[in-house]
Every structure is written in structure tokens, then in C-alpha cells.
Specification:
The radius of gyration is 20 Å and the shape is globular. It has seven helices and 15 strands. With 289 residues, it is of the alpha/beta class. Strand 2 and strand 3 form a beta hairpin. 37% of the residues are buried. Strands 2-3-5-7-9-11-13-15 form an eight-stranded mixed beta sheet, sandwiched between helices. Helix content is 20%, strand content 21%. The chain binds 2-acetamido-2-deoxy-beta-D-glucopyranose (NAG) (3 copies).
Amino acid sequence: MSSSSLILFYSFTLLPVLICSVSINILAAKQGFSATFDCEHHTGSHSDSNNEANPPTPQLQQAYIVLQAWKNAVQSDPGKFLSNWVGPDVCSYKGVYCAPAPYNETLQVVAGIDFNNASLTGTVPDELGLLSDLALIHLNSNGFSGVLPTSLSNLNLLYELDLSNNHFSGPFPSVILSLPALHYLDLRFNEFQGPVPPQLFTKGLDAIILNDNNFTGSLPPALNGNSPSAIILANNNFGGCLPPSIANFANSLDELLFSNYKFSGCNLLGFLKQRNGENREEEDEEQSA
Ligand SMILES: *[C@@H]1O[C@H](CO)[C@@H](O)[C@H](O)[C@H]1NC(C)=O
Ligand SMILES: *[C@@H]1O[C@H](CO)[C@@H](O)[C@H](O)[C@H]1NC(C)=O
Ligand SMILES: *[C@@H]1O[C@H](CO)[C@@H](O)[C@H](O)[C@H]1NC(C)=O
């Protein structure tokens, strides 16, 4: 499956970052990566190739402008996470990961931004859409708020978007639907509300994690397309029945959590029987509890 396309795009330093993140565990398991990969030395410092200053290519010059704009959009940084975000060598900035561009391997570009657990507050600036080589954005466990800029539609290589545990709000950010390379979406623990567009479920994502928001409406009546490994919808305000077609996903889903989903009047039993190969009645009880 296409989960490995990132490795084709970006052969190198981003991979350890991916494996380090808690959020990637589902994909990592699927790809057979070792979950015990030692990430310590990758997170604090950068790869050896970045120790010498990177030549100021147009891409890195633009990244400088974007990242300084983001620094300005940060309202508080109690842990001084951004304290080394000074000067043109953006590849040495904490939380910024450079890699050879997929289209020119002698060209260093900004391929990942990882602010996991940095306690930053503020917003995501429109300028972020200019970092068109980004494959990974991890903002897990910060205090970011506001809405996602529509300029993110320029991020044609974006593979993982983790906004979990922030204060993002507003309707489902439909710009996400326009990201052609996206495989992993984690919006859990934010303040998004309103319906989730049906296209999200047929877009070929590996993981769709939406729990603990205030999404409403029901899932689309027909699901098809590429199967996600994980769909997690718990603790929202979804209503209605599970679509019968979700059984199409049954054999490939590793993780499907619908707790607090309102199942009244639905044929849940039929779904679970299909999913579990007829034999797992104890789980029926669990799920309908
Ligand atoms: C690749 O990038 C290098 C460094 O910027 C540049 O000198 C070279 O012309 C580029 N090659 C192509 C094919 O664009
Ligand atoms: C996040 O940071 C806090 C302190 O800032 C720390 O106590 C906690 O262990 C960190 N969590 C992770 C998952 O790194
Ligand atoms: C969730 O949305 C519903 C309907 O719009 C609203 O009544 C409710 O207050 C919201 N809950 C939270 C926690 O925002």
C-alpha cells in the first residue's frame, strides 16, 4: 500500500522523526518499522549533514520568511522552544527538519515541522502554505487556536497532519480534502464542530482520528475507496447509524472506535458479525454497552 511513498519521496532524516512520534504508531506498525527505534539523538539535534550551514537556496530563503512569520504568530512560548529560531539556517531550528527534495536530491528543503508537546500558543499563519515541500506537520499538544489556513492546499507532499490536543476550532477544515499525499490525519482533542465531509472517508487515508471534538451529523451512507487502518470517532456528537457499507472496511480496519456514538435503532449486530467473522459475540456486548 502507498504508506511507503514517503520513504520514496524522502529517504533519510524524516523517517526517524516519524518513528519517534506517538501518533505514527499505527502506520509504523503497519509498515513493520521497529517501534523501539531510538529517537533521542534525532529529536534534539539534527543530522550530521545539517551541521554545516545550508547554502541559502531560494527554498530555504523562503522557509526563513515563513518560519519567522510563524514565530511572530506564536503568542507564548513558555518553554523557549523557538529560542534558536534566529538567522537564515532554518535547518538548524528546533522542530524543523530538512531533507533532500524529492525532485532534486542535492537540494535541501524543509520537509517536516514537529512541535510536539512544545506548549506553544498562537495561530498557524497563512504563510505556511508556502512551504510546499512539507511532508509532515506535527503540532501535537500545544495551545494553537483558530482555523487552518486555506493556503495549506499548496502542500502537495503533505503526508501526515497531526493537530491533536490543541484548540483549533470552526468547521472541519475542508482544505484537508485537497491534500493529495495525505495519509495520516489526527484532529483529536480540538474544538472542531459541525459535519465531517463524506469525501474524507474515501480519500485513501490510512488513519482518520477525530475523537474528542464536537463534530456532528452522521457518517455518509456509502463508504468505499481505499480502506483506512484506523477510524476513531469517539466523543463527538455524531448521530445516526453506522453505514452498512462500513462492513467493507471490516477486514482491513485495525482499529475502529465508536464509543459514545449514538447507535439507537441501528443494526449494529449485523455489522459486528461481518466484521468479526460471525464468532465474536462478546465484542457485540462490549460495543453496545
Ligand atoms: C538541484 O539543486 C541544485 C542546488 O540548488 C542546483 O544547483 C541544480 O541545478 C538543481 N538541479 C536541477 C535538475 O534542478
Ligand atoms: C510534555 O511536556 C511536559 C512538560 O512540559 C512533560 O511533563 C510531559 O512528560 C511531556 N509529554 C510528552 C509525551 O513528551
Ligand atoms: C457541541 O455542539 C452542539 C451543537 O452545536 C452544542 O449545542 C454544544 O454546546 C457543543 N458542545 C461543546 C462542548 O462545544
